[in-house]
Amino acid sequence: MASAIAGFSLKFCWSYCPVMMNQFAQVVSICSLFVGCVAATATSAPHLVTETSSIRVAQGKQSKPTIEDNDFKFELQGCQRSGESVRCNLVVTNIGDKDRPFTLRASYSEPISRIITKSGEEFGATLAESGKQKHNVEVELRLIQGVPVRAALKFERIPRQVSDLAVLEIGYRFFEPYGTARVQFRNVSIQPK
User: Fold this and answer.
1) Domain boundaries of the chain, sorted by first residue
2) Which end of the chain has fewer CB atoms surrounding its CB within 10 Å, N or C?
3) Pairwise CA distance, residues 157 & 83, whole Å
């Protein structure tokens, strides 16, 4: 009986999880009820929700949450607080087969980058940064294939009692082909600086 349930659980997870990516977090919860078929991804899979269909969650011994989307890899380095400001650092890598333009968005036009606290408060990014570029709307980069680039999003007026985020949503544009997308890291801790 147990092997029949396990077989059904794995078949259910592998058959339906990829189809329902827009509801990935809910599906992960449902799938994890079935014999823990996604228990190995408990620290990284809940961090993923995206608007596109080509999604992969990278796993490894490092516990840095990583999302691959549209031939870009996003690795969250962490979020740090300084007073009422929160800065979320990430590394973006073009994993496609050629150099590509990439734009990291702040919060003044779609797709925006934002955080949502566990109590439901939403805050848009006030600054996008990469290298010497800093702008309140966006920073444009030409990402060389396979070369990681550090970037950051800054959020202001975050109440001091907020120590965890329900979600960090990163809005970005890409070119060749053109598109806009968002990726979401869930259950993000804010560390003191």
Assistant:
1) 2-42, 55-192
2) N
3) 9
Helix (H, G, I), strand (E, B) or coil at 149: strand
- Top CATH class of 55-192 equals mainly beta
Smallest CA-to-CA distance from 158 within 123, 112, 189 is with 123
pLDDT, one tens digit per residue, over 67-117 is 999 999 999 999 999 999 999 999 999 999 999 999 999 988 899 999 999
CA 17 to chain centroid, in Å, comes to 18
Q: Which two tokens stand for residue 64?
A: 């840095």
**Which of 58, 71, 87 is CA-nearest to residue 143?**
71
- 3-state SS class at 13: helix
